[in-house]
């Protein structure tokens, strides 16, 4: 009897949708959700034109019946959870605020787990990340959500590596995005990843939005300068430092102003701010530069010196590391000229 080569084991891994593309999109709507975020995947995938891929978009009521939005409007979703089966892409566009009510319903969580196990790409936009987190699919993975709720996500689901400073996280079969228009960025990324840049650019032009935004979510996070407690030498020293960021400030000099030894000052500083004096000063200088870029038309070189940096060249790497974009790019978006545009 002749011999024959053993057959290889069957490939049971999920299909590579990044190469094969996707055509059927299931969008799960939950009760009391924000209207704008809920509309994002429908706006990106729903319009049909000759120069765009033709997606079959299924809008699903994840909890059954009409979907009430947080604006008081009621939406009639034509599909129920059974429509998740067979979808190539399953999107949770948003979720009600995590502090409003209980967890997502078990039926919806099981539908998401089943879709992922069946090879679908599963996506959450904005607060929808809390729904994916409840399924357990994000355990051990990086993920993002709206920066305002990133801390809450990390505390509720400590097994997730929360990245609050990015617009979206692409893990191949699971993707998550930051808030509001970050969902548009992720949906366009999905089109670009599976159907090419031309298709994504066509959709972006129709939405009058950039096909790709530089930087991450960090440039949109508001970091208010906290007023130090006054009435004691330590609080008065921090307040003085905030008013004199343009000067050369040394930690030893601040400790002397606070009438403390350097060791006591460092210990008190970490207790009050959670960081070191040097790190705090650098952070406050970048924040001050941000405010000057937003509210003045001074050259970046002068902004840098007003914030305590030797030059614009010295400011740039710290600004980019903390904010996510260069000072010039930040001013173009948030400066007075950008606001006028």
UniProtKB/TrEMBL annotation:
Residues 235-333 form the HTH araC/xylS-type domain. Keywords: DNA-binding, Transcription, Transcription regulation. CDD domains: GATase1_AraC_1. SMART domains: HTH_ARAC. InterPro entries: Class_I_gatase-like, DJ-1/PfpI, Homeodomain-like_sf, HTH_AraC, HTH_AraC-typ_CS, INH-QAR. One of its GO terms (molecular function) is DNA-binding transcription factor activity. This is Transcriptional regulator GlxA family with amidase domain. Gene3D superfamilies: 3.40.50.880, Homeodomain-like (1.10.10.60). It comes from the Bacteria.
